Amino acid sequence: MDQKPALTARPVEETQRIAALDLLRGVALLGILGMNIRSFAAPFAAFVNPTVMYEYSGASRVAYWATTLLFDTKMISLFSMLFGAGALIYSGKSAGPSRSATGLWYWRSVWLLGIGLVHAYLIWEGDILVVYSLCGLLFLWWTRKLPAWALVPLAALLLSVGGLLAIGHAAGFDDLPPEVRAEETAFWQPAPDQLAEELAVYRDGIWASLYTERRSFCLFIRSFSSSSFCGAPGA
To answer: What is the pLDDT of residue 69?
Structure first.
């Protein structure tokens, strides 16, 4: 009785790759790099408000608007949709008689979550792997077979959560306690001494001080961005 050869993990052959997806993935990564360069260059407040730290004129103004119009959120959305496309391709592959595609997907997502948490909290707060892994664990795998008429409103609902929360927060900003308003204003429009203090932490601080600075901001970024990124793969 012939036995089937055992399946072994190995890289995808070049002939098995989808060139169009690889090309789009490369474009998205380079666009994200453009935004990350802006993020690496200054505190987060300057990322969204260029007047905080730089002279907002000339080449600096052109660079800010060029990266905003061409890359900001567009490349991440493109990469998120490619992540969703990758899940569909992954689900169609044979996992072998002793494995299920679902089990492998969740195993892969758990590993992705672990790597992302290490990256986010110990290396760089702009990590996106945590969001992708959570989307994969909670939404993507179980919605991949839904028809378009169900996916479109579901994606729109997820994408609207972050915007609605931001609108609600802005509408109720004047009703917040004065100390909370002052704290938020200082976050988005920090004074020169606050900018100098944050820059000193990243330029001269030890790793422990960087971790303390990064920890609360990581939670903010993960909470604010999760709904938007989870909506894109479903769309």
So the answer is: 93
Domain map (residue ranges) of the chain: 19-234
Query: What's the token pair of residue 156?
Result: 């729109």
CA 206, chain centre distance (Å): 26
Are the CB atoms for 54 and 46 separated by under 8 Å?
Answer: yes
CA atoms within 13 A on the CB side of 125: 21
Instruction: Return the DSSP state at 206.
Output: -
Residue pLDDT, tens place only, 195-211: 888 888 778 777 777 77
- The residues near 162 (Cβ < 8 Å, ≥ 6 apart) are 224, 225, 227, 228
Q: Are 88 and 70 in contact (CB under 8 A)?
A: no
Write the CB contacts of 81 (distance below 8 Å, at least 6 apart in sequence): 232, 233, 235
Question: In this structure, what token pair is assigned to residue 23?
Answer: 């090309």
Distance CA 74, CA 80 (A): 10
Q: Which two tokens stand for residue 235?
A: 């769309």
Q: How many helices (H) and strands (E) does the chain have?
A: 11, 0
117 token code pair: 């948490």
Per residue in 19-50, pLDDT (tens digit) is 889 999 999 999 999 898 888 888 888 888 88
- Nearest by Cα to 131 from 107, 154, 112, 153: 112
